Amino acid sequence: MIRARGLAKRYGERLVFDGVDVDLDRGDVLLVTGPNGSGKTTLLRVLAGLAAPSGGELALPARETIGYLGHEPLVYRELTPLENLRLFARLYRADQEDVGMLLERFGLWDVRNERVSTFSRGMQQRLGLCRVLLHDPSLLLLDEPTNALDADGLELLAGVLAERHRALAVATHDPRHVEPHATRRLAFA
Q1: What is the mean pLDDT of residues 28-36?
Q2: C-alpha closest to that of 188 among 20, 29, 6, 33
Q3: Max CA distance (Å), the chain
Q4: Tens digits of per-residue pLDDT, 107-134?
């Protein structure tokens, strides 16, 4: 899925990271840890193909096989969950039938016709997880996915992390919910 050797990322004179190696195969869960500002998000953006590395070698799967959830769920707040996922299903060329299944799985079926702008941050995060899972990506990149999730949301996320039919990379400064699922680790200082 991912092969990276000696990855580096620089913004002007600021070196974010250097010499990073990543090997990630289907079934692997890479846990990327470190304090805020250590380069975790930047690494995931590079692995998602959203930012170019400044150095090193990187081999990624096809862009349409990648699911990326950053700090924001990237859903339309004035639409409902049902409208959001139907829109993303068309954009991803995903099966419309999966929309209902995901809304139910993530506890959003009963609020499927309410505007996302009325949702708590945790409910928006759940919808963001639905969005990135909609096209069943073979590579899933999650940046601080536990953000604002309650106990039920954390349990749902644990279910995603336990699935072994895809490769996952999870960046977090609080690894306790991801650690039990991790098969590989990368720590930033």
Answers
A1: 96
A2: 33
A3: 50
A4: 999 999 999 999 999 999 999 999 999 9
Pick the CATH number of 2-187 from 3.40.50.740, 3.40.605.10, 3.40.30.10, 3.40.50.300: 3.40.50.300
| Tokens read off for 71 | 């700090």
Domain residue extents for the chain: 2-187
Question: Minimal CA–CA distance to 40: which of 70, 61, 73, 75?
Answer: 70
Handedness of CA 156, 111, 64, 16 (dihedral sign): negative
3-state secondary structure the chain: CEEEEEEEEEECCEEEEEEEEEEECCCCEEEEECCCCCCHHHHHHHHCCCCCCCEEEEECCCHHHEEEECCCCCCCCCCCHHHHHHHHHHHHCCCCHHHHHHHHHCCCHHHCCCCHHHCCHHHHHHHHHHHHHCCCCCEEEEECCCCCCCHHHHHHHHHHHHCCCCEEEEEECCHHHCHHHCCEEEECC
Q: What is the pTM of this model?
A: 0.95
